[in-house]
Design a protein that fits this description.
alpha/beta; 6-stranded parallel β-sheet; globular; 42% helix
Length: 245
């Protein structure tokens, strides 16, 4: 992709939807769809690196996903562990820094160890910032920030009258990374599903019918093209357009 012609968003967030429907369409078990989805993850990461996207955030497992059948949840956890254990070397070789956002305390000990190990190995990398949202919810993120802020107020290190949006932002996930520019959702759904509620206030949205396992380089390119066709105003209007209907 020619980045001289296209403005590349600094931070892209993706709601990876459609693994189950992909499996059904292909006459396979649902876990086969999730496994195919991991290949799409690899392709998306490769595209982000090649096109110098600074941050890529992937919605892997929401806090609501625990309500799925136990067999599916268990298979997803095993797949997540496998991905971390097998991909961390590749991430490190490619100078990719991994971050996991969400409440990992609910995961089993083995998975928590895999997460910590992968984060530690890639901690000093300076290339793509890859964020995996696991047991994550936008409401949880904001509520968790409120807990941290309350602790600061109780300790006297933060005065209530000094609390503003910038203060809250410092306690929200991904606050130290570029603001999300583009949110992509695959799978023919048109909702944000409790994803990055604070971080995507002024992001551009791109919904695509393609199911996640089929989200390839061409689909990612198309999302960037559409992003470039948008006029981002961040709540403002151009002076010469104030009185236009």
């Amino acid at each position: 992709m020619n980045s001289t012609r296209q403005q590349i968003p600094r931070h892209v967030a993706i709601i990876m939807d459609g693994n189950g429907r992909w499996a059904k369409q292909h006459g396979k078990l649902k876990i086969k769809g999730h496994r195919a989805g991991t290949e799409a993850v690899q392709n998306a990461v490769k595209f982000a690196v090649e096109n110098k996207i600074q941050s890529l955030t992937l919605y892997a497992f929401s806090s609501e996903n625990w309500n799925r059948p136990k067999t599916e949840v268990s298979a997803l956890m095993e797949l997540f562990t496998w991905f971390l254990d097998n991909e961390v070397k590749k991430l490190n070789i490619n100078n990719i820094k991994l971050t996991i956002i969400g409440d990992i305390s609910r995961f089993k000990y083995k998975l928590q160890n895999s997460i910590k190990h992968a984060i530690d190995i890639t901690a000093n990398n300076t290339g793509l910032q890859l964020n995996i949202a696991a047991n994550y919810g936008g409401r949880w993120d904001i509520a968790h920030a409120m807990v941290l802020i309350t602790e600061k107020v109780k300790s006297g290190s933060l005065l209530p009258e000094n609390l503003d949006e910038d203060t809250v932002n410092k306690f929200i996930s991904l606050h130290d990374q570029p603001t999300v520019d583009l949110v992509i959702r695959t799978g023919r759904e048109y909702r944000i599903s409790n994803f990055l509620l604070w971080q995507i206030a002024y992001a551009e949205f791109y919904f695509i019918d393609v199911l996640w396992p089929d989200f390839d380089e061409e689909a990612f390119k198309r999302a960037i093209v559409v992003f470039n066709q948008r006029e981002r105003r961040f709540g403002n209007t151009k002076p010469d357009n104030i009185y236009e209907e």
